[in-house]
Fold:
Amino acid sequence: MSGSSPGTEPATDVSISGSPGSRSDDGKRVLLAKPRGYCAGVDRAVVTVEKALEKYGPPVYVRKEIVHNRHVVDTLRERGVIFVDETSEVPEGALVVFSAHGVSPAVHAEAEERGLRTIDATCPLVTKVHKEVNRFARDDYDIMLIGHAGHEEVEGTSGEAPEHVQLVDTADDVDKVTVRDPSKVVWLSQTTLSVDETMERVDQLKERFPGLADPPSDDICYATSNRQVAVKAMAAECDLVLVVGSTNSSNSRRLVEVALQAGARDAHLIDYADQVDENWLDGVRTVGVTSGASVPDVLVMQLLDWLAERGWTGVEEVTTANEKISFALPREIRKDADGTPSGVR
Ligand code: 0CH
Ligand code: SF4
Structure:
């Protein structure tokens, strides 16, 4: 995987800023990862739903969770969004938004058949992987799609060319895949995987298929890899890492795993500060804090307040990259929209 990502300025070195002077006498401190939280694709998807609500009024239907975050979903539901599992649940002629994780051509076709009005909030970096699947399928490759079985993104991506795509999730899957011509095999991946684990899977695949071709560019996106780099930079110093994110969020879960692999003594995923078990804090001096790409920063700020009330007052931000990337809204909503960042923050 390449080191620098489009729209990302690598910090020249790991920079630490904040208020170490206010560290408590008993050495309690917080290391706060940067980058963390909302990525450009999530911001775009959430703003899209907000603009749809403003422009058309409720109800606005969204197929699946717009992003995998409980707070975001609950907040939008309160504002008049109806989340459905399938387009078949959307009344004929109504408006439906497709989530950031992407949908297969079959879902687009079904929506059209039912006369639904659609807005596609698929992240452009997921669409890029869909296009890669199409391109390699056109050239008659067997495509090894590394990703998590059952994840919506993988279902949408493989749905572009199901007859060409085989899913590789676990190490066992590497032994199970079959190819027609070992010189025409390529690997692609879900955007929100662990970078290290994915490269392990690629090495295993290459042992079986030495001619395995690499994707034209990284499929694991800039936001996923940047958040992993940031948590790695601080993990070894942390007695406990708290990752704010929901249990169905692939990229958030990966941050817990990466923190532990990089030397954190303990790590947990929480949706809200009040889910922190006070027992986790026994004997802890340094707490690392980060959040997944679908997490509004207000939840991180609430966690910092919760920690401050318990003596963790000094917060030092550990910066490994500065992200500048943003995406234009989907064309269906762009007209009349001013691109104001999401209100769900
Ligand atoms: O990490 P996953 O893919 O589960 O999704 P999320 O938590 O909604 O984060 C945003 C990623 C959306 C598609 O790449
Ligand atoms: Fe797009 Fe990456 Fe964010 Fe997914 S995690 S929405 S691919 S920027």
In short: The CA atoms of residues 7 and 325 lie 4 Å apart.
